[in-house]
Amino acid sequence: MTDEIQHFVEGVSQKGHFDSEGSFTADLEAESHKLAAHRLKNPGDYVLKFLQAAVVGSAPGFEMQVGVRRLQINFEYKPMCCVEGERFLRHLSIGLQSAGQFAKSVSVLKDGKESSFKDLDFSHGGYLNIELKRGITKNSLLSLFHRAAEHRVLARRALYSPIPILIDSWPVPRGWQPLKGDSKFAHIPNEPAFYALQAYLDSPLLPEFDYPIPDDQNARKKQNPVLSLPETGFEPGNNRRCSLAAAVSSELRSEARIDFVQDGVLLERLRTNLGFRGLIAVVSADELEVDLSTLRLVRNESFLQRCQSLLAPLPRVASHLRKHQKALLKNLAKPYFADKGNLGQLNMQSDYSPGSVQPSNASLLQLLPKPSKVVTAWPDRTSVEFEKL
User: Residue 277 falls within a domain, yes or no?
Assistant: First the structure.
């Protein structure tokens, strides 16, 4: 967190008070002008701040309805302590300030009653309804772009939300996404890629977070790996509490993909060669410094240390994959070959796959990552690609 935002939160907390029943209240409106410099620049990003507030508040779900001139966001939050309450307040405050840039008006209903947020009580649970009225813009194309922005940011950056998200009653996909490329493991041309392995690991070097496991059975089926390495169990809400969530794609891309997530929102995605082909890793961004937007990470020494720390469990993942390669081989689609005879004798009824080869343990082992080849030192910054989100 930047110093400016830290001072804002501390200022609000110091001016807040506990009443006779132990409820903490703070005057948000009186302090909101201090957040003007932190308004988000990209249309739709403010929705991510509301989602982060919902995640911190342990909301059972997050709903958004998008209309031509109106957008509504609804979520319930649970009672919070001071530390969680300050975090909740920070996300919500920046979201409200930023939403005002793209709406004619922003109104908030707490427990069904219109509220100015003059008295915000997070020591008791509640239900929030946030409504944005867009009005009529002279540029209809710009209006359409702003309406689509909320969909876009949730689809791209809410992949790891531990709470379900509905947009106009349609669920937003969460967790491991279906792969689109071709499998390098396959022995038949154009065979679609799949997850060879998924792992949920504990590491004393990394903070824990909740990785989402979808409730929908069809979504789970698309994400199911051939092998799994679960060191952690399910939490309430079908989430995995872990320090590192990793998957190995049979696309076997040479550059690993690393995602940093905080309060259910993807903050940073980078790609680099870690000596582990096909790797996709997800780690927490908690305790790392964010920039003024609060939705991107500052690439300082703490960030580099987090990157270095995630390397330690990777050889164990590669070792597990190679140890159980027979199960992987058994799962591969087998090519068809004609029974005796050469190619010239085959007819349309022959079981033959052009361009295919007979799968074997040896050929598969050549493709699988080797634990000894996984890098032990984080690559130089010039060899790391930071993806635009």
Answer: yes
Place of tokens 């400016």: 4
The tokens of 218 are what? 């069809």
Contacts 24+ apart (CB under 8 A), 18-21: none
β strands within 8-53, DSSP E = 17-18, 24-26
Q: Which domain holds residue 245?
A: 195-321+369-386
Query: How confident is the prediction for the chain on average, in pLDDT?
Result: 81
Query: Angle of helix 45-56 relative to helix 82-99, nearest 10 degrees?
Result: 160
CA atoms of 296 and 283, how far apart (whole Å): 14
Distance, in Å, from the CA atom of 234 to the CA atom of 239, rounded to the nearest integer, reads: 6
DSSP 288: S
Q: Are residues 210 and 274 in the same domain?
A: yes
| Beta strand segments in 224-364, E | 227-230, 234-235, 239-242, 244-249, 256-262, 265-272, 279-284
Report, as an integer, the average pLDDT of 97-119.
Answer: 74
**What pTM does this model have?**
0.83
CA 129 to chain CA centroid, nearest Å:
24
Residue-wise pLDDT for 19-43, tens only, equals 555 454 555 544 554 554 455 767 7
Kindly state whether residues 163 and 219 are assigned to the same domain. Answer: no
> Based on the domain organization, do 211 and 288 belong to the same domain?
yes
25 and 154 share one domain: yes
Q: Could you tell me the pLDDT band of residue 243, with boundaries at 50, 70 and 90? A: very high
286 in a domain, yes or no?
yes
Q: What is the mean pLDDT of residues 266-288?
A: 96
Sign of dihedral through CA atoms 388, 165, 52, 305?
negative
Rounded distance, CA 223 to CA 226, Å?
10
